[in-house]
Amino acid sequence: MAALRSETGQLELGGKDLASLAADETVGTPTYVYDLGAIAQGARALREAFEGAPHLVAYAVKANSAGPIVRALREAGCGADVVSGGELGLALACGVSPEEILFSGVAKLDREIDAAVAAGPLGIGAIQVESIEELPRVAARARVAGRRARISLRLNPAASLESLSTHSHIATGHDDAKFGIPKDDLPAALAVVASFPELALTGLSSHIGSQFTSTNAYVDAARTLFELVAALRPSHGKDLRFVDSGGGFGVDYGDGCPVAPSDFVRQVRAVQRSLRLDDLALYVEPGRALVAPHGVLLASVIQHKLTPQGSIVAARQRWLMIDAGMNDLLRPALYQARHRIVSVRAEAEASQSVPWRVVGPVCESSDDFGVHELPLEPPRVVAVLDAGAYGYTMASRYNGRPMPAEVFVRDGQVVASRARDGESVWVADREAFPP
Length: 435
Description:
nine-stranded mixed β-sheet, 2 domains, alpha/beta, TIM Barrel, Lyase, Ornithine Decarboxylase, Chain A, domain 1, elongated, about 425 residues, eight-stranded parallel beta barrel
């Protein structure tokens, strides 16, 4: 959790007082606030876990595609993992080298493949092919462009859903998932690759899911991948440049997370060394782990409701209605995810606490952020913590509601911002959000 209490007890993020931001008429709520300095620091710490070995930290742009964040991570030495032509264009506009971009996804459009093949002198680092049927499509687009497309094969290690220990909506490495080439089909895939001179196989990859709070399933999947790579060395040793063990490193949303992103890397590196594959670069694709802890969603309390009507203390149910809804933060409605919610003001936080059910204004029963211990006297502004990933990127205008604002801070200063829909731009920073 990156939001901290100052010496006076006020909630701060990146040295910026969140109560003052919410009270600023040019900011208001609902608003996402992100700490760019902490995001970059986390990326540098993760890179140190490779201990100088060849590697690429390819930030999964889908977690948060804000320009200032992508640029901060690029400046910290990260590449990008993208899943659409829009994300590819964003990464390039933010200065990410085409060599350090991976393009994943099961249903890439022809024009998206064209953009990947055309980027830079040699195209992007790798188009991650997720089915045998995709291979001739990529070859055809490369032929039209007069180029050779660099590809990697994303393999599905067929892990059991139970072993993945994560929500079924974010588990991707099991038999029933739409992602990846079944590992048993690898020989057939290699035969198809060999039939197209327009394809250059440069790596093998896997990505089994997200929000892992234990390294076990991740390392097991990586071992399967490395064993396949080792078996290929005699025939494809000159071609393979990297192995990509994917992302999915978990964060602490309040129930604890005993492992850090660096733990995943160190354990995977140990497997890599044991199979004598140190000459290959190791790629990883973290998203959530780099940004989730360093973002909050500020929301104002609109009103409260007691059932039955009476005193707050005696009420069987206490509802707290806030101005942020499931259109602003979809995860609780979509995944039954839970985010901690706290008051931003010290005086409110210090008072007696009682359980409040925090809900939003959207006309859906699932617009519900759960029960949280909050001050007996309802606070005026709350912060939804650990909201830096899959918040704004999954937001919508459902119920005719505007998209939330975004504020980016570093060392106590606002360095970039994006205004709420339909409102005047209150900080001019057009370059922060390239098309």
